[in-house]
């Protein structure tokens, strides 16, 4: 068959190991998954109550327009309903953007390491990519500007960045957006925005009027605790959303996911409490790293990228045997570090004991 040439060098996404699989392999009775930045506090009570009592009609196609979720989000953010695009998770939004704007002959810019789906989708569309190395975990935005050519169609900015967790300071991001030509789409992936506590962040939605070439991606997968439902959305100028909507599959979100996301929006107090609890626990990781002289990137998210004294795959394996699934930095482009989702206080107590053992048994740097 005539597969796209580029697929030869590409690998499919490799999901992290499941709790069940690790329990069986290592004969453990309790395993904590801290590998995919899911919410350790679950999801809002309003969602659980709805799921116990749902009378949705399964034989009816979902509302291809996103139902009243669209209205609720437009009210929450003070944007037009036409300014919202739904994706089957932000993952799908990235593929919609790439399909709509990238092909052979076009060019996209992104950081490295960052969320891998930007480069992955751009390559499938045949586009050339420039991956700009982070500097101390931060996007090197001046270097992004230098990479812009006549072919550049999309710039992906992950803010805060995965896997480092760093937030781009407000003035750096705004001065960058000011310098990017208007015909280039700047995608701001804000998957972790609900966890940000640093006041020097960009309120990107308020920038939309001034910069119609930005597209803000958000998701219900992380802080809202609804990763399994696959629902994300983008907010942009209607003139950007309209062509993207032509690429979107007509019923890309199922009825249950749409309704559950609506319920989740009713409980903003849940998100506030997760932000607070997460920030407290994040501080503990900072202290732990400082006490043990381990490098830790300055995270504003619900995960941390922390240095380990041995090879990152070995360190992840060590923690796995103790019942903690984390992400090895080797696969993320950050060797000698592991990415750990910030768990609950109790989960972190146990994680720190396992980490103590790692440091004792495997020695320091
Ligand atoms: C988790 C994540 C996503 C994907 O979110 P979904 O809505 O679950 O597809 C997008 N971007 C970043 C940076 C992420 O970490």
TrEMBL record:
<dbReference type="InterPro" id="IPR015422">
    <property type="entry name" value="PyrdxlP-dep_Trfase_small"/>
</dbReference>
<feature type="modified residue" description="N6-(pyridoxal phosphate)lysine">
    <location>
        <position position="222"/>
    </location>
</feature>
<keyword id="KW-0663">Pyridoxal phosphate</keyword>
<dbReference type="InterPro" id="IPR050106">
    <property type="entry name" value="HistidinolP_aminotransfase"/>
</dbReference>
<keyword id="KW-0368">Histidine biosynthesis</keyword>
<feature type="domain" description="Aminotransferase class I/classII large">
    <location>
        <begin position="30"/>
        <end position="354"/>
    </location>
</feature>
<comment type="subunit">
    <text>Homodimer.</text>
</comment>
<comment type="similarity">
    <text>Belongs to the class-II pyridoxal-phosphate-dependent aminotransferase family. Histidinol-phosphate aminotransferase subfamily.</text>
</comment>
<dbReference type="InterPro" id="IPR001917">
    <property type="entry name" value="Aminotrans_II_pyridoxalP_BS"/>
</dbReference>
<dbReference type="InterPro" id="IPR005861">
    <property type="entry name" value="HisP_aminotrans"/>
</dbReference>
<dbReference type="InterPro" id="IPR004839">
    <property type="entry name" value="Aminotransferase_I/II_large"/>
</dbReference>
<dbReference type="Pfam" id="PF00155">
    <property type="entry name" value="Aminotran_1_2"/>
</dbReference>
<dbReference type="InterPro" id="IPR015421">
    <property type="entry name" value="PyrdxlP-dep_Trfase_major"/>
</dbReference>
<dbReference type="InterPro" id="IPR015424">
    <property type="entry name" value="PyrdxlP-dep_Trfase"/>
</dbReference>
<keyword id="KW-0808">Transferase</keyword>
<keyword id="KW-0028">Amino-acid biosynthesis</keyword>
<dbReference type="GO" id="GO:0004400">
    <property type="term" value="F:histidinol-phosphate transaminase activity"/>
</dbReference>
<protein>
    <recommendedName>
        <fullName>Histidinol-phosphate aminotransferase</fullName>
        <ecNumber>2.6.1.9</ecNumber>
    </recommendedName>
</protein>
<comment type="pathway">
    <text>Amino-acid biosynthesis; L-histidine biosynthesis; L-histidine from 5-phospho-alpha-D-ribose 1-diphosphate: step 7/9.</text>
</comment>
<keyword id="KW-0032">Aminotransferase</keyword>
